[in-house]
Amino acid sequence: LGMRNLFDKDVISKSVAKNEAPKEKSSVTFDAREIKYYGYMQRLKEKIEGIWHYPYEAAEKRLYGDLYVNFTIKKNGSLGNVELARTSGYKILDDAAMRALKEAEPFWPLPEDWKEDGITIKGHFIYNLYGTHVR
């Protein structure tokens, strides 16, 4: 680049755009405390925990860990995208958590006063020697 282009608006904006972090979709967690989400998240958490089981083979081998799954619930309550965001380190544990989400479908439709077409949830699935729970 010549000195003339050093302070060119287009050159600067392209450079800044390259260095920006990608914008993350907004998401909520099962433990969301905002009044808008609280009741729905608690019911959702209970439903998933009621279906999700510690795989017998994993418990027998005393495997434990935690994983994060990002998933979307559409306005009508159907399950949208499901993505493993961070592994537990054990495929058997990851698969069981993701399978529980799919088996728990359909979920409740999103409340009418929510303007979103869907909601993305970042679920923290935890396996320990005492059982399982989500946060």
Give me the secondary-structure topology:
Elements: H1 3-6, H2 9-19, H3 35-51, H4 56-60, E1 65-74, E2 79-86, H5 91-104, E3 118-128, E4 131-134
Helix pairs in contact: 3-5
Model regions low in confidence, pLDDT < 50 over at least 5 residues? 1-9, 11-25
Overall body shape: elongated
- Residue-averaged pLDDT, rounded? 82
Q: What is the number of E strands?
A: 4
Helix content: 25-40%
- Which structural category fits the helices and strands? alpha+beta
Main β-sheet, in a few words? 4 strands, antiparallel
Number of helices: 5
In terms of DSSP E residues, the strand content is 15-25%
Summarize the structure in short.
By secondary structure, this protein is α+β, with helices and mostly antiparallel strands. The chain has helices at residues 3-6, 9-19, 35-51, 56-60, 91-104, and strands at residues 65-74, 79-86, 118-128, 131-134.
Report on this model:
The chain is built from 5 helices and 4 strands; from the N terminus they run ααααββαββ. The longest helix has 17 residues. It has a 4-stranded antiparallel beta sheet, covered by helices on one side. The chain starts with a helix and ends with a strand. Helix 3 packs across helix 5. With 135 residues, the chain is an alpha+beta fold.
Q: Top keywords for this entry?
A:
135 residues; alpha+beta; four-stranded antiparallel sheet; 5 helices; 38% helix; disordered N terminus
